[in-house]
Amino acid sequence: MDDRTRSLRSLTIERSPPAGPSSRPRRWLLPAIGILIALIVVGSGAVLWLGSPIQPAQAPAVERPSPQVVQSDNAVQKSVVVAPGSTGSLIASGYVVARRKATIAAEVTGKVVELLVDEGMVVQAGQVLARLDDVLADKDYALAQARAEASEAAVAAIAADLADAERILNRTQTLSGKNYATEADLTKAQARAGVLRAQLHQAEAQLAAARLEAQRYGEVLGKHRIRAPFAGVVVDRSAQPGEMISPLSAGGGFTRTGICTIVDMDSIEIEVDVNEASIGRLHAGTRVEAVLDAYPDWRIPGAVIAIVPTANREKATVKVRVGMDLKDPRILPDMAIKVTFLDDGAPAAARSDSP
């Protein structure tokens, strides 16, 4: 038995002693390898990212003006693009104004007996707009005419007497030369002719004064008919029949100074206020496109007429006059309007759109 036992023991494999403290670090080997791999991956990514070129920051998008659609007569649409300059398109707001506008007033004081116009009426130059009570003025004119006629008659009578006196003087001079008339007769004839000449001169002066007076009263009578000074459209009727009209306000609100207001539509233009910092970009002839607030889809071509040579200190603006290439009854005074000043190379719309 001992031999077998020894033989079996000789066949057994000797086991290593249990792991001591020196084998503990092997338990962290796999986690350490994993951490090392992760660090390698992260490091490789960082190297790749740092090695790539840095992209520059993207500039903010600049909004370009959208094409402006302009419709021609044959309904073919065309686009007019305003190319933005270094500082962009210049836009200003303003109003439609009439260069020729007048409130029609009477030159004499009187009561309105007839008003012949109303708002919206087209009137011609010299047309009668209203008539004032002219009864007294007509009588004054008639009296002045009568005085002028009396003066004319006086001149005619004195002229006849003078002609007779000169005939007597000539005859007396002839008789005196033949000693048929005395010196006293000659002197008397000369004196009478001289007096009549003076009277005729005085009568002629009185006649001239009477005629001027009659003319003045005739003009006063004519001023009782108020006429249009120019052709235009009546935009306001401020008086009524029965009211008193005077060239000067009498106060108290009982006397009016105006009959109506007339606007010459052919003098319509645009006035805008432009910041003085941008006025150097404009000049007479600069093309524009105007848009009325009332018709936002209607573009009106035009050009700068003039830059008014004065500035507003409070607003730091300069007034600019702009003319329009077309006349249209839809364009009315005091309408609000926006004006876009185009670059010199950008053409304005050839024709306007119909709203």
UniProtKB/TrEMBL annotation:
The chain crosses the membrane at residues 28-50. InterPro entries: Beta-barrel_RND_2 (IPR058792), MdtA-like_BSH (IPR058625), RND_pump_MFP (IPR006143). Residues 270-341 form the CusB-like beta-barrel domain. SUPFAM superfamilies: HlyD-like secretion proteins (SSF111369). The keyword Electron transport does not apply. One of its GO terms (molecular function) is efflux transmembrane transporter activity. One of its GO terms (cellular component) is efflux pump complex. Residues 100-246 form the Multidrug resistance protein MdtA-like barrel-sandwich hybrid domain. Residues 15-24 have a biased composition (Low complexity). It holds the Pfam family Beta-barrel_RND_2. Keywords: Coiled coil, Membrane, Transmembrane, Transmembrane helix. Residues 1-24 are annotated as: Disordered. Residues 186-220 form a coiled coil. PANTHER family: HLYD FAMILY SECRETION PROTEIN (PTHR30469:SF38), MULTIDRUG RESISTANCE PROTEIN MDTA (PTHR30469). Belongs to the membrane fusion protein (MFP) (TC 8.A.1) family. This is Efflux RND transporter periplasmic adaptor subunit.
